[in-house]
Structure formats: structure tokens, C-alpha cells
């Protein structure tokens, strides 16, 4: 009996895999038959398939790439239905017709296609980026100089610094440096680009430059503390290099210009181009002209560029026979980047105080992070993950928001639980009119783009204002109610008085910084996330009904701030 039972058990073990595969084949065959039958039903116009219900899609998602998560949570007036007109369902006789089924499926395919193309444009695959970069590299090649050591404290290539943690290529770095008139371009860590006019002193073994370029498979972009250096050639034959020289103003000259500025030049018939070219080659961000004298340097405590003078005073100085008699000078910003404050790192030990950088979306949180990172030298974290910000050098985006390795953490959250997780917070507040417009632009055109006139005049804009305006008010009110220790910063005040307000923020974060570093931040104040000018619209986006709603929220928030002994909202907020 036992022998027979053993044989039966052995037989079952052999056949269990066969039974499993037979079951899987049966299910697959059934699925294929079902799909084929559905296709035949649509093609033959069978009325047996029910199509009485059109697909409900939220307004925010129809015609747009990816729906905003908050919009899905608060869909507003309700969903529209694909397949009807203006939210109405098709006529009854059309609901079951094969033509309507084909039309409905065509609409769904188009919706998916639009979503797919939007997704591809935002999240370009590495293979595509690499292919484009390789093709572009063939058009523009610099001379490879070798692999060199890279010391972040005494960096040789420090004229300009760029990051692209997803699409960096050799050609992209070479072009960026060539456009700014630099001689050398160096790449490190596969994603960092450095420009300069002096070749690094210490060379390394070729195999130590072993980091693959993030946007170009098969190409080397330096390594860990190693630079792949290229001598930059012209972009194209006869093409003009872009040399952005910005007029900063007329300023009172310091008492001893030679002690204040590290480099100088005396040149008869001196021009702005001559002085700017000289200072760019010396890798200084400021070109200062007094008569026939050219000086190069940085903004410092002795020459802070805070109090400009009337331009006529500089005109008289330029016409003075003796340059020494001139008390005023002209100041220009060269294409060279001020790199005294570009070094950043994670905290070496976990922070004991968990600090939030809280704001309503569109209130300038990214800009504030840029200022804080460059002022303190430490990365900021984020409650979310934004790939676009990470790819542009905000490395704290990928760090877990509760790691406590960052100086503060970006958040747009409100509510008792989310707020009480933090020990303290910098609460950044911006004019709701400007915040709403900035967030609407970001939602439909990214960090640097603008929403189209069609977006502004569509149903999405009034729905957006109705839901987001209340969020602007509740965000501030919740942080005032549940926040443990707050520093209130108004975006407009930070923009107007950058150094004093940034000092307050840095002291609140318990970090000590030098005045020169703060002046460096002011010199690099815009960063990489400023929209190029205000796109003028030929219409007023806010209706009177919207203004009445927003103004009520403004008055409510202003009263709450004063009730907590904080400074009220700036006068420009109310009324509009």
C-alpha cells in the first residue's frame, strides 16, 4: 500500500508543471478569442455591444497631457464625457451605431497619443538624448586635452558651471563654454560642465576619467574628482560668439581701486568691449571702467554695487583729462559666472532641527531654494520629486525628504499632520494674483514656459482660480495655526531687499556665511529658473468675480498674520 502511494505522489509531481502550463495556455487562448470577437463586433457594426455610457474624464485632463493630482482630487464642476459635444451625451440612435463606436475609440486613441507625446517631451528617453548628442557631437568637436584632477576647493575651470544630470553631452558642454568665449571645457561626474581659460595643472591617468555622459552613451564625461578637458573650437565657421555684457550702472569708485580689484589695465581709447574681453580672459565677473583704466573683480564689502549714482556723474568722469580725478566708475557684468558660492554639498551630520521651506505653488519656492543653497553651501530637499529640478543641479530632490541631510525641505503641504512633522519653517508668501498666474503657467508649460492664450481663455482658468485661490489662503492659515516656529518671508520683500532678507533666512537656519558669499548670491540671483521677461497679454485674465474672491482671501490672511504679531501683507496685495 505504501509503495502504491509513493508511485502516485511521484506521478503528481511530474504532472503539476504540465497542468500549470495547460491552464495558462487555456487562459491565453480565451483572451485572444475575446479580443478577436470584440474587434469583429466593432468592424461588423454589431448592435449587441452596449455603448450607452461615454467615458468620464475630468476637465483638467481632457486635452492636456497629464492631469494635475490636485485637480483630480478636486475636479470642480464635474467631468466631461468624451464622445459628446459640450458635455452632452450623443443621441440615442447614435450611441449604438458602429460609426459612433469607431469615433469614440478614435478619440480615446488621440487622447492617449497626446498624453504619450507630452510624456515623451517631458521625459525624453536616454537613448534618444544620446543619439541626438552623438549626432551633434559630430558637428562640433573640440580638441581633447586629457584627463585632469578636479579639486572643488581650488578649481581651475571656474569661469562658468552647468549641470544636467540627465542630458549632459560633450558637445553640449563644449558649446556652452564656446558661446561664452572660454578656451576650455571640462566635464566631471558624467553630468557637470566647467568652463575656463586656464588648463588644470595636474593630469591624471586616462582610465580615471571613466564616467559615462548622462546623455550620450559610449562617451566619457570625466569621473570622480576628474575632468575630461577639451579645447573649445568655434561653433561654426563665421558664427559669432555670444558675449553677454550687462550694464550694472554708475557707482562711486572705492578709494584705492588697485587694492579693491585684483586685475587692471590702462589702455588709451579704452572701450567697453576691450575691458570686458580683458576681464573675461582673467575670469572675473565684473568689468569696471574709469577713464582709460579698466579693473576686474568681484562684488565685495568694499564695492557692493548696492548704491548706484546718476549716470551723468560717470559721463563727466569719462571726459576727465586725468583718470585719477574721477570719483565714479562704470560697471559691467561679463559673461563669466561668479563661482564663489556655487559649491554645494549634503550635511555631514544629520540635522537636529527639521526645517520646512513652505509655500503655495507658484510663490517662488524654487528661487528661494536656489538662494539658500548658494548662500549656505548645502543642498535643500523636497517633499516631492521633480526630475526637471534634479537634472538642473538640485541634487536634494532625490534624497529622501526625511533624511535630514539637507538644510531645509520644500513643501506645499498644509494640514495639521503634515505641518507638525517639522520643528520649524520658513513660510514664503507671494501675491496671490502673481502666484496663481505663475502656477498656471507651470502647470501648462513647465518651469520656464507660458500657458497659451487658449489656456487662459478656456474653462480651465476659472476652475483653476476657484480651487487654487482658497488653497492659497488655507495654506497660510494652517501654517500659522499649527506651525511651531515660523519665519515669514514675503516674496516681494525678498526680491526688493535680497541681502537683508537672505541674511534673516540663513540665520534662521543657524548657518554662518560671509558677506562676500552673500554678494556672490546676489550676483547670481536669478539662477536657471526665471522666465524670460513677463509675457504681455492683451486681456485681463482676472474677472471682477475672481478679484472679489481673491481680495476676500487676502484680507483674511492679512488679519491672521497681524493676529499672530507678524507683519501684514504688503500693500500692493490689496485691493486690486
Walk me through what this model shows.
- The protein is of the alpha+beta class.
- Among the domains are: about 90 residues; about 80 residues, no CATH class; about 200 residues, Rossmann fold.
- It has 19 helices and 19 strands.
- A 5-stranded antiparallel β-sheet has the order 3-9-5-6-4, covered by helices on one side. The protein has a 5-stranded antiparallel β-sheet with strand order 10-14-12-13-11.
- The longest helix has about 45 residues.
- The chain starts with a helix and ends in a 13-residue tail after the last helix.
- Belongs to the WSCD family.
- Pfam families: Sulfotransfer_1 (PF00685), WSC (PF01822).
- This is WSCD1 protein.
- Keywords: Repeat.
- It comes from Formicarius rufipectus.
Quick take:
With 576 residues, the protein is α+β, with helices and mostly antiparallel strands. It is built from 19 helices and 19 strands.
